[in-house]
Structure formats: C-alpha cells, structure tokens
Design goal:
The protein is mainly α and about 500 residues long. About 65% of the residues lie in helices and about 0% in strands. It has a single domain (about 25-475), classed as Amino acid/polyamine transporter I (Up-down Bundle). It has a two-stranded antiparallel sheet.
C-alpha cells in the first residue's frame, strides 16, 4: 500500500460536525471533570512536595521564580496543542494528533513511546508513597509495621475499582481527591506567608538578582516537568461534553491553575522555612513540607501525608484514564490488538484495556518496588518521563506547525502556530540534553536512557514487521479524529458557528 496516509474525514470547520457515538460514554464529563483529569495528572501534592527541595538546590530562594518561568514555557506547549484538540477530538490524544498532522507511523511510534509514560505513572508515585507511608507509620507513636506492598495493593485496588465502574465515577473521585490535595497543599503554602521563618516576609524569591550563586536556568528547565501531565485531558475527548470546546479549555486552564498554584505555594514554603536559611532547606533529610506541617500544625501534620495519599490515588486514576483510552483508540484503528477496544456493556469503559493496565500496575509496581525501592523507581521513571514527554510534545509541536501551514492555512496565527511551537521545542531539546549530561545519571538512574532507546528501537522493529507482513490497514484510520456527524440547528446555534 502507499506510504501516504489517506486523508481523514472532513474536519468540523466552523463547528459543522461533532463527534458521533464511538462506544465510550459520550458527553459524560463537563468541563470540571475534564479539567480535573489534567490537574490530577500534574499531581499538585506530589509535584510540589517532591520537587521544591530539588529546585531550590539550583535556584536557592528564587525557586518560586523558576516555577513561574516554567509555567510560561508549559503554557506555550498547551496553547499549541489545544489548537489540535479543537479540531481533532479523539481518545488517542497525541497518537491521533501526530498521525493526522505528520504520519501514522510516527503517530504509532509516539503511542508506543507513551507506553513508558502514562501506563507507568499509575504505579511509580504510589510505590514511592507506600514506602514513605510505611516508614512514617513505623516510626510514629502508633508503631505500625505495615508492609509497603500491602499499602500499595490497597491504594491501587481502589483505583482499578473506580476505573472499572465508569468514567463518571472515576471523574467524581478525581474531583474529591484532587480538591482535597489542592486545599491542603494550598493551605500549607499560604500558611508560610503568615508564619515566616528567618528573613521574614519579602519578595526576594522573585528577584533574579538573588541567583548569583545559583543557576536559575537549570531550575526553570527542570521545573517544566513538575507541570507535566496537563495533556491528559486530550484522551478523554470522546467522553467529554462538546469536546472541541471543553478539551482545549481544560488544557489551557489546567496549566494556568497549576502554574499559579506552584508559583504561589513554593513561595509560601520558602518564606515559611526562612529565606535566610535556604541552605538548611536544601540539606534537609526530611521532606520540606513535612517539616513545615509539623511546625505549623503540630499533631495535624498528617494532613500533609493525607494530601500525598490523595495525590497518589488521583494521579493513578487520571493516568489510567489516559492510557486506557489511548489503547482503545489505537485498537479501534487496528494498530493494536482489537481486544483492547472491548467495552463493558453497562459502564461503557474499555474493560480489556483496564485489565491490561491493572496487570501492568500490580505486576511491575510490586516487582520493581521490591527490587529497586520506592525512591529509585520514582527517579528512574522521572527520567523516562522526561524523554517520553519531550518526544510527544516536540512532535506535537511539529504537527501544529504543519497542520496550520497546510490544512488550516486560513486560520494560521504566527504566534500560536509557529513561534510557540518552535521556542518550546528548542527548550525541550535543551532540557533533555541537560538532564542526561549535567550531571550524567549514575547507578540505576543510568538505566533510563538505555531503556528509552531500546524501547524506541523495539517499536521501530514492530513497525517494520507490520509493513513486511502487509498489516498496515490501520494507516488509513490512524489519521481520523472520530467519525463525525452534522450538528443539529440547535447545536449550531449553541456554538455560534465557532469551534
């Protein structure tokens, strides 16, 4: 067959078409549910609690400025990909975007790369948390010695149950768990403004001149990945109400909310610790938020741990939502086994994909957790996520440029469709170079780059094998967003003729 993919169905220019029923529970989620899908994948508590000390080791007291500048970079990425989300709603997310705008084979490789990202995320943070919770329970006054693996099984068992019961129930759980962690982490951050440490209240954290002995730029580039996960709203487009409006909004809003959240909360934590004592902050052997929670809240410091538990559950639900919907879309196009598109007759969830994700979560989580420990597993996966997310974002950016220079030429906006994609892609390339060269990861952390390269090569081998066997019919479907139907007059009136 020809290497040139067939064009997808007519796009819904001017809001003329909307996604038809694809088997998933259509229009099940409104903007708040879709928005929380992205926010909880960012994981506010995990992102804030586990990165503040690392970012401060580079930027010192101006760590909050690092988060703020990173937010602006990520906003460029979100602004770009939202331009694809408003025209190409699909459970495949980036798989469909890249397949449609560049080539199905490149889209397939991107989906293959995502196997090291979204499907892995549901167990890495919970494993780390399970070890942390085990140690805290054992050394507390309770003296409970609960195996980490039992904590992990309980946490992930709840996640899989919620996933199985349907997108609405899992979205409601995301709303509850996500809001709980945001409130607790936000309260801890704000508390620091009123109970400051040595140095008192000041604006030193936003003065670039205070970076003379630190490297603000490294803090910025590594802060970008504290915000990774905002793109997770894209794969649930087929279950969102009015996806061409809801998903792009969720992508942008999640970055704005989380960017502001990280910038403000990190500032409060630095003030609470004390801007005059930042060296001890960097050298602390205990999580900084735990130290401050004990100082501010006394016996109620466990609320900080509770926020982490909520964050681990929420990020597992959100990333499982994203990975299982991506597999469903890839199976529907024929690029993955068709069994993965089987839906539960009542809950309309991709039940086989959920079972596969559960097997990956429990199998790899328990084995790798026992072999490497929670912290090592978390940081290896973090390096893998850096590579995987960079690949996806960069090729998504290239797709935006090509799409609006060709199919959507009449809508071309040089800032959104050229400048933002180019600038953010250059920054992402630099991030990857710095992540693996300054310094070069050692020990087990050095596994990350070889794992990525071997996985990429394996994906290329699978593609070659499919071509040699003449199994590439899926190329014709991979470019399609979803099968579309004309809007009714009422829907057209609601949209006002705009996408």
């Amino acid at each position: 067959m020809s290497d040139t993919p067939a064009a997808g169905p007519p796009s819904s220019a001017g809001g003329a078409h909307i996604a038809a029923d694809t088997g998933l529970q259509a229009a099940a989620l409104r903007l708040p549910g879709v928005l929380m899908q992205s926010i909880t994948t960012v994981a506010p508590a995990i992102g804030m609690f586990f990165t503040i000390q690392f970012i401060a080791s580079y930027a010192g007291i101006v760590a909050p400025l690092g988060y703020l500048l990173a937010f602006l970079i990520v906003l460029m990425l979100a602004a770009s990909v939202s331009q694809l989300a408003k025209h190409l709603p699909n459970a495949g997310g980036y798989y469909t975007y890249i397949s449609h705008t560049l080539h199905p084979r490149l889209g397939w490789i991107s989906g293959w790369i995502m196997f090291l990202y979204m499907p892995v995320a549901p167990f890495t943070s919970p494993v780390f948390l399970s070890f942390l919770l085990r140690d805290e329970l054992k050394t507390s006054s309770l003296g409970w010695d609960i195996p980490w693996w039992l904590i992990f099984i309980v946490l992930e068992g709840l996640v899989v149950f919620l996933m199985y019961r349907g997108i609405q129930i899992s979205a409601q759980a995301l709303l509850v768990f996500g809001l709980a962690e945001i409130v607790i982490v936000g309260a801890l951050g704000l508390w620091g403004f009123f109970d400051t440490g040595p140095g008192g209240f000041n604006f030193s954290s936003y003065n670039p001149g205070n970076t003379t002995s630190h490297n603000l730029f490294f803090a910025v580039v590594f802060s970008v990945f504290a915000l990774t996960g905002w793109e997770a709203a894209a794969p649930i487009a087929e279950e969102a109400e009015d996806p061409k409006r809801t998903v792009p909004r969720a992508l942008i809003y999640s970055v704005v909310i989380m960017g502001a959240f990280f910038a403000i909360c990190s500032w409060g934590l630095i003030l609470g610790w004390g801007t005059a004592d930042v060296n001890n902050l960097v050298g602390s052997t205990e999580l900084i938020p735990f130290v401050l929670a004990k100082q501010f809240w006394g016996p109620l410091w466990w609320l900080a741990m509770f926020a982490l538990i909520n964050s681990a559950i929420a990020v597992s639900i959100a990333t499982m939502n994203a990975s299982t919907r991506m597999w469903f879309a890839m199976a529907r196009s024929g690029s993955l086994p068709s069994v993965l598109q089987r839906l539960h007759p009542k809950h309309r969830t991709p039940v086989t994909a959920i079972m596969l994700q559960a097997a990956i979560t429990f199998g790899f989580g328990l084995v790798l957790g026992a072999r490497w420990g929670g912290a090592t597993l978390f940081f290896i996966s973090g390096l893998l996520f850096t590579l995987c997310a960079s690949w996806i974002y960069i090729f998504g950016n290239v797709g935006v440029i090509r799409y609006y220079l060709t199919e959507r030429r009449s809508e071309l906006n040089p800032l959104l469709h050229v400048v933002f994609p180019v600038v953010s892609s250059v920054i992402l390339v630099y991030i990857c170079i710095q992540t693996f060269t300054n310094p070069t990861p050692t020990g087990r952390l050095a596994y990350a780059l070889p794992i990525f390269l071997v996985w990429l090569a394996a994906g290329a081998v699978v593609l070659v094998a499919m071509r040699m066997r003449g199994r590439e019919d899926w190329l014709l479907k991979a470019t399609q967003a979803v099968h579309e139907r004309p809007e009714t007059p009422e829907e057209l009136a609601h949209h006002g003729g705009l996408v």
